[in-house]
Amino acid sequence: MLKKFTYLTLTLAGVFLMTACGGSSNKGGSSSDELTFNDSLANTAPLELSQEVMSDVIQNISSPVEMAALIKSTGVEFSQRILNSTNQTDQYNTSFKRALNLGVYSADLGYINTFDKNTIVIDYLVAVKSLAEGIKVGQFFDFNSLKRLATNSNNLDSLMQISISSFNKMDSYLRSQNRSNVSSLIITGAWIEGLYITGKVIEQTNDENLIKRIGEQKDIINILEIILKNYSSQPNFSELADQLGNLKEAYKDVKITTEVGEPTTVEKDGKLVIIQDEISHIEITPEQVTAIIAEINALREFIVS
């Protein structure tokens, strides 16, 4: 199976829809919030992460939408129980937790929309909106448009396209404010939540495609660990990197080999472009799957608690 990915299909699961030209008048968190929780996550990393580094991570992390589509193809029923409850939102009272769980709820929205569960989508949109404002990126968030599009599954393609563009704008803004570490937290939260949901379904179905997709994530961990350790002067980041290290250890004996596929030619902007695909082969045992899922569960609990 090919590991393909587009920029923020990843993080916001096609439903974050933060638009710079949208109708929201909120410019971010309130002044009282800033006084109460003075932890703006200023970037104190020794190394500046380039756009190329972040793009490499993003383009190789499995999309929550893609994961959710694989889950749906197994025939397993939708389960709201495995999602992070929206009742948790108020307890995320630091920028660190808000950024991580903004990613979590966005991945949950991808799962919800894939199963067309419009009856609960608004609760999760409200949670995303609240956390976005809490880390002062509410100016990119058009709740009314998001609500309109996300409650109609026919609009999924439009949502994904807008999400990609909108996250790029938000990411550029965070970088300009010396807050690129916030982007890394959102990415990490979305990635872990997608794996968590997938792990729960594997426990029910033992589906081979999902097991392979879990196994493929070994390639991501080293990069994420480097990114998080780049901010290790901040205690929360250090603890998160340590938790990720436990997951890395569970993956250590998983073997991934890559086969170069046949090149394909596509038209892009009026030009022919040759794309060289790679096909990954995963060797992973049931015992390894069990150990990996256990560490995913522990990391997810650290994030959402």
Strand ordering within the main sheet:
1-4
Biggest pleated-sheet summary: 2 strands, antiparallel
How would you spell out the order of helices and strands? HHHHHHHHHHHHEEEEH
Total strand count, please? 4
Alpha carbon gap, first and last residue: 34 Å
Query: Helix count, per DSSP?
Result: 13
Shape: globular
**Helix percent band:** 55-70%
Helix/strand structural class: mainly alpha
Query: Which blocks of ≥5 consecutive residues have pLDDT under 50?
Result: 1-38
What's the assembly state of these chains?
single chain
State Rg. 19 Å
Strand content is 5-15%
Mean of residue pLDDT values: 74
Overview of this protein structure:
The chain has 305 residues and is mainly alpha-helical. It has a domain at 9-215. The chain is 58% helix and 7% strand. The protein has helices at residues 9-12, 31-36, 51-58, 64-73, 95-114, 118-134, 143-150, 156-176, 180-205, 208-216, 218-229, 235-251, 286-304, and strands at residues 255-260, 264-268, 271-275, 278-283. A two-stranded antiparallel sheet has the order 1-4. It has a two-stranded antiparallel sheet with strand order 2-3. A hairpin with a 2-residue loop joins strand 2 and strand 3. Helix 5 packs across helix 9. Residues 1-38 have low confidence and may be disordered.
Any descriptors?
305 residues, mainly alpha, two-stranded antiparallel sheet, 13 helices, 4 strands, disordered N terminus
What does this entry show, briefly?
The protein is mostly helical and 305 residues long.
Write the layout of secondary structure elements.
Layout: H1 9-12, H2 31-36, H3 51-58, H4 64-73, H5 95-114, H6 118-134, H7 143-150, H8 156-176, H9 180-205, H10 208-216, H11 218-229, H12 235-251, E1 255-260, E2 264-268, E3 271-275, E4 278-283, H13 286-304
Antiparallel strand pairs: 1-4, 2-3
Helix pairs in contact: 4-5, 4-9, 5-6, 5-9, 6-7, 8-9, 9-10, 9-13, 11-12, 12-13
